[in-house]
């Protein structure tokens, strides 16, 4: 089993989250940290072929948290500056830095409310926020977002509260109580009124951008489904099931509440931060399955605290065979707990069994689910042997060596990053789904008849079109199964107002590809590209030609030809199909 590259560094970074750094804690934090090296929730984003930088981003996030805890413990300017640099590193690697820049201010605000705010917190946050924000604004993708968007206003507001609270403490130390109370009431009233008016006017004038759809979807899971289909279409944006929690975390699911209890029992500034990280991350991971990556590290921390404390409690009660000095107190304790050694042995054995099963579970999940690159598929044949489907690399290599270097490829956005990296060709849309209008245009081309699609493809200067088809091999994550989302996204903009989802259902209201499918479905460009020549192929014994192994249906439109496209390449198992867009002749005819 291959471990993430940053696992060894994580072992040290997690140590900074622990409230106690005594020598006897070393083995405890080692147990806690070792879990992150094998937990599937983290390894899932750190395998080759995933084409995602989140594996590095999580390390950056944890490094920032580590330095933040060090800064709050010491009140040191140097630690605060290092925290700001780590935050800059995090911002440059992943857009999920918004979670970090809201969690740290939440920690500071909680310390204010609980009366734990001190000069150390003031120095740590003021330097971290100011320097970190200035550095992050140097990244073109971020720009002035930290001072213009609603997602960053909480951090800015807490920064202002820190300055006000520090000034209040200064005045309180240099004024009488009566004068201070009069001044305090006046300043608070005027300050809150001015802040409210300023925020309202800036929002009205558009100086502060509203929350993005992704942010709303985290607060309201139904928002994306009802308003932004491009977000709802992503499988990683779906709510997390209990099965997914257990699959990616196993033992950690049960030990997490134990660690949370011990943190509440011994509150400190560091423990409060860990609690806030735990509660917020488990909520967001429940809303969006991709955020399991953010939850996995803190689950290891909290479970490690629970396991370490449980073992420490019972290990000292195990009879080692040595005779301890007999005292009145020990006699009374022995009378109260007559079989404490046996109970302790049972509890330690249970924990050891749990840890062993956790290791085996992580090894199995990692090897079966997360060890294969996403571009190489594997399946089991009838005889149990492993079958490898290498169609993606085969197709990307064909594009790289058989098409002009300036060729433009149109495909659904899921394959954008892979096409760019492996085929080295220009693509229209990729996994950065911020440009909803451009993706909608591609969806319109896929959902329209050939004539209308040709107009869109020429408008976008498309040379080749790539689709993923699983009807031959049984690969279920193909474009036909994603087609409804293309229809919804294509119809979500004014240019696609003519595309109605209901037109692609059968007369009985079902999504079908057989003879009962609607004419809009049969004539769509997606249908024709996937099923071109498929009606001549026998996929299973005893089934008619054109039998789709994913939908378990016989296709309804077998005999058709392509007018505006010509087949350029079809991979070995028909998973990747590439078509060349025909040129107009000199008279303007197709």
Could you characterize the architecture of this molecule?
With 590 residues, the chain is mainly alpha-helical. The chain has helices at 7-15, 26-36, 40-43, 54-74, 77-93, 97-113, 119-136, 145-148, 153-174, 177-204, 213-219, 223-227, 229-232, 242-249, 251-265, 269-287, 292-315, 328-336, 340-369, 391-402, 416-423, 436-447, 450-459, 479-490, 519-523, 525-531; strands at residues 377-380, 386-389, 408-410, 426-427, 464-468, 547-548, 553-554, 565-570, 576-581. The strands form three sheets. A five-stranded mixed sheet has the order 4-3-5-9-8, with helices on both faces.
Task: Describe the structure concisely.
This protein has 590 residues and is mainly α.
Topology:
Blueprint: H1 7-15, H2 26-36, H3 40-43, H4 54-74, H5 77-93, H6 97-113, H7 119-136, H8 145-148, H9 153-174, H10 177-204, H11 213-219, H12 223-227, H13 229-232, H14 242-249, H15 251-265, H16 269-287, H17 292-315, H18 328-336, H19 340-369, E1 377-380, E2 386-389, H20 391-402, E3 408-410, H21 416-423, E4 426-427, H22 436-447, H23 450-459, E5 464-468, H24 479-490, H25 519-523, H26 525-531, E6 547-548, E7 553-554, E8 565-570, E9 576-581
Parallel strand pairs: 3-4, 3-5
Antiparallel strand pairs: 1-2, 5-9, 6-7, 8-9
Contiguous helical run count: 26
Strand content: 5-15%
> What is the C-alpha radius of gyration, as a whole number of Å?
30 Å
In total, how many beta strands? Answer: 9
- Which structural class do the helices and strands define? mainly alpha
Distance between the termini: 54 Å
* Overall average pLDDT: 82
Q: Residue ranges: pLDDT <50 for 5 or more in a row?
A: 1-9, 16-21
Q: Major sheet: size, sense and barrel closure?
A: 5 strands, mixed
Q: Could you estimate the helical fraction of the residues in percent? A: 55-70%
Overall morphology = globular
What's the arrangement of strands in the largest beta sheet?
4-3-5-9-8
